[in-house]
Amino acid sequence: xxxxxxxxxxxxxxxxxxxxxxxxxxxxxxxxxxxxxxxxxxxxxxxxxxxxxxxxxxxxxxxxxxxxxxxxxxxxxxxxxxxxxxxxxxxxxxxxxxxxxxxxxxxxxxxxxxxxxxxxxxxxxxxxxxxxxxxxxxxxxxxxxxxxxxxxxxxxxxxxxxxxxxxxxxxxxxxxxxxxxxxxxxxxxxxxxxxxxxxxxxxxxxxxxxxxxxxxxxxxxxxxxxxxxxxxxxxxxxxxxxxxxxxxxxxxxxxxxxxxxxxxxxxxxxxxxxxxxxxxxxxxxxxxxxxxxxxxxxxxxxxxxxxxxxxxxxxxxxxxxxxxxxxxxxxxxxxxxxxxxxxxxxxxxxxxxxxxxxxxxxxxxxxxxxxxxxxxxxxxxxxxxxxxxxxxxxxxxxxxxxxxxxxxxxxxxxxxx
Amino acid sequence: xxxxxxxxxxxxxxxxxxxxxxxxxxxxxxxxxxxxxxxxxxxxxxxxxxxxxxxxxxxxxxxxxxxxxxxxxxxxxxxxxxxxxxxxxxxxxxxxxxxxxxxxxxxxxxxxxxxxxxxxxxxxxxxxxxxxxxxxxxxxxxxxxxxxxxxxxxxxxxxxxxxxxxxxxxxxxxxxxxxxxxxxxxxxxxxxxxxxxxxxxxxxxxxxxxxxxxxxxxxxxxxxxxxxxxxxxxxxxxxxxxxxxxxxxxxxxxxxxxxxxxxxxxxxxxxxxxxxxxxxxxxxxxxxxxxxxxxxxxxxxxxxxxxxxxxxxxxxxxxxxxxxxxxxxxxxxxxxxxxxxxxxxxxxxxxxxxxxxxxxxxxxxxxxxxxxxxxxx
Lengths: 417, 377
Fold this sequence. Notes:
The complex is a heterodimer. Helices cover 41% and strands 12% of the residues of chain A. Chain A has helices at residues 7-23, 29-33, 47-60, 79-89, 100-113, 116-128, 245-261, 268-275, 289-317, 328-348, 365-376, 383-394; strands at 133-136, 152-155, 163-170, 180-186, 197-203, 209-213, 224-233, 238-239, 279-280, 283-284. The chains are: A alpha+beta, B alpha+beta.
C-alpha cells in the first residue's frame, strides 16, 4: 500500500510535468478549470481547434494515447504512467472530450479486429486527433436492449461482396464532427437476436449517410440521429466475422465503461467551494451541520471513486483484466452530480434558478450540471443496466429472464408490430 | 503507486479468516448473544496465542511488532466474523492510548498483558446521553482519586483497567480534561452490566468512589489524546465495518440465489438485484476509502485526520446499508431470531456509534477539509 511515486514514477512525472509546462495552452487554463459538465466552451477561440492543436502537439511528442502501442501512435506506456499523465494534464484533459469515444472505444475495437494495414492507416490519425471517430450503436428500438437493433446490412446482389446498409442510429455522440465511425448492424434476422449481428467501420462521408443533430432537453446538441440509405461498404470494412458482431461490441462496451467511468467528476470540489462562500441565516453554509452531513456523504463518494479507480489501475498493473466492477464509476458519479447540482441551487435560494454566468454563482456551472446530469445517468449504460451488470457479473446473480433470447429476431414482438 | 495490500498482508488476513471460521462460527457469536457470558473467553485466548492482540505492539513489549496495515486486515476479519471479544477496547483503544501517552513503566506493565490477552483494557468516556464533548466530561479527578460515574463503557464489566477521561480543571474547556489509568478490580469501582442493542459486545456502567488513579499523559492533554487515538481507531473500526458489510452482502446474495418465489430465484428480480448492486457499491466505496485511511495510518501521513474521517463515514454508511438490506432481502426469515441477519444489523448500529456518531465524523471530515483548504490558500 503506497500512494507515493516510486523513483521511476517520480522521474516520469517530472518529465510529463516539464513537457506540459512548456507546451500546454496556459492562457486557457483558468477558463478550462471552470469548464466541464456540459462540454468545454471558450470565450475567444474555437474549442475544437484548440483541442485538435493540443492533441496533435501531444501526438508529435509521443504523449497521445499513452497506452496504445507505439506503431499505432501511442507510447506503450504502463497503466500507472497513464494515471500520472492524467493527473498532470489536469484541466487540459478537458480538451480531449471529442476524442474520448475514438480513443477509448473505437480505437481498441479497431486494434482488436481490423487488418494490420487498416490499423496502420487509421489508428495514428485517430491518436493525433486529426480524424475523429464515433460509435454507431444505439437505435430507436435498441438502447438498453442494444441487441434489439434493426439497421440491416445485406450483401449486394452484384457479387462484389459489398454490403448495403439501411436503417437508423440514434444518440450518436459527435457524429456531426466525426470522420469515421464503427457501426453495428443486423445481418441475419432469422437468427436469435444476439447471433445475427455484424460490425463494420465506415467514413461518415460515405454516400447515403445523413446526420441530423438532436436538440437535447438542456438545449445543447451533442447527440445525433444518423440515417443510412443504401450505404455501400466493401467487405474489407467488416470487423470480426459475419454474424459475430455482438462479441465485437462487447470489446467496445467494456472499454466504454472503463473510459467513461474513470475519473468522472461528481462536482464535489465545486460544491465545497460554493459552501465556503454562501451566507445563510446561520452563517456560512459550510459551518451548518446539516450542510456538512450532506457534504461529507458526497465527499466520501468522490474519494471512494477516486481510490476505487486507483485500485483498478493497481490490478491492471499486476496483469489482471479490468472487470465489470468498474461499472460503479458512472453509476455513482451520475446521480451524485445530479444531487449536488440540486443542493447547490437550493443553497443559492431563489437566485439558484439563474443561468446567466455573469449573474449566478460559479459562472452557472451548477445550473448546467443540473440540466445535463439526467443524460449522464442514461448514456453509455443506464443506471439500471449498470446495476444489472454489477448484480450479474460481479455478484453472480441470475441474468434477467429473457423471453426473446432464443427466438429468431424477426419473430420477436415489437411495439411496431 | 500501489493501492493494494501485499501478498504477505493478504496471507495474514487469510490466516485470520481460517482461524475465525474455526473458532468463531455464528454459533459462537450466538452463544454470547444468548448466554450469560460477556465475551468468548476461549476465542480471546486463541487470538492472543495467534499474536493477533499484539500486532502493532513492539516486540520488546511482547507484541508482533508489525504495522497498521497488518492490523487492518485482522480487523476486517474480526468484523466479518462479528467476533464477540473486547478487541476494539483493548487493541484499538487501550493499547493505542498506552503507545501514545504511556510512561515506560505503564507500557512495561500493561502492553505485554494486552498482547497476550492476559489483560483487557477499555476506555471510559461518556457520562450522559448525547454526543460526547469536552463539556460532557465532568467526572472529578482530584488528589489522585476519581469520583463519579461513566456510562456505556464497552467491555467495562470485563476489563482489568480503564483509560478514564476526567476533569482536572472545572468548566467546559478541553484543556481541563486529563486521562488516567484506573485499576477496575479494586473495591473503589462498582460495575453494572447494561443491556444494549448488541448483546454480543458487553457494556457496563462504572461508578468510581475515591478510586486510586495514575495519570496517563500530561495533565490537560486528555482531549487532544482522545482525538489522536480516535483517528487511529476510526480507521481500524472502519475495517471492522468493511468486513461486516461484505459478509452481510454475501449473505444476502447467497439467499437471493437460493430462495425461490414466483417460480424463480428472487435474485433474478431486478428489485432485488438492484438492491444488492447498491449494497456492493457502498461496500466498494467504503473499502477504497478504507485503503486510503490504512495507508495514512500506517505511514503516519499528515492526511490521517481527513483520511480517517472519510474511512469512518463511508464504512459506517456501508455497514448500516448492507446490514439493513440484508434483512430486507431475506424477507420475513430475516426478522427471525434464528437467522443471523439481526446479528449484523445489531453490530452495524453498535459500531456506528463507537468513537462518536456518523454526524460527528461527517462534521469532522468537512472541518478538516476546510482547514486544509484554508492552509493551502
